[in-house]
Amino acid sequence: MESPSKNEQLLILTDVIKILVSNTETKNTYAIFEENVPPLGGPPPHSHPDEEVFYILEGEFEFIKNDLNNPFRALPGSVIHVASNEVHTFKNVGKKPGKMIVLLTPGNLLDYFRVIGDSLDETVDYPDLEKVPDFSKLNVEKAFKHASEHNVQFIVPKIAEN
Question: pLDDT grade, residue 2 (50/70/90)?
């Protein structure tokens, strides 16, 4: 019997995730998904209780962990571990789409993705991951609106007041 998650794909801001093992199949012990990231794609800096392990399959990524001023490169074969509640982000800094496998433990972040993401089925167009996304058309409102109920915290820069 094929897993029900095998066909589940979501557009999360700029990225497409294909769920390989759902948290619902593992009783919230872990989840695994493939993440496809267009050039310059990636999330804003954030933290959450789930631990993440990223395994880079294709592309050139820049990751940040804790120190927003100290990015580092991640190329195919790289493994990046992000501890629970560690501030982090990544960006595809290459000219081609990037691909990675992501392991979440316990996998609760997948529930957040299902709330904020668009299901890629017959009703939603699959994005062209070869192109830099049009960031002006991103709907980040849903991501910020539902963040706190899923224990996701975005790190936004402070704007100096005059």
Answer: very low
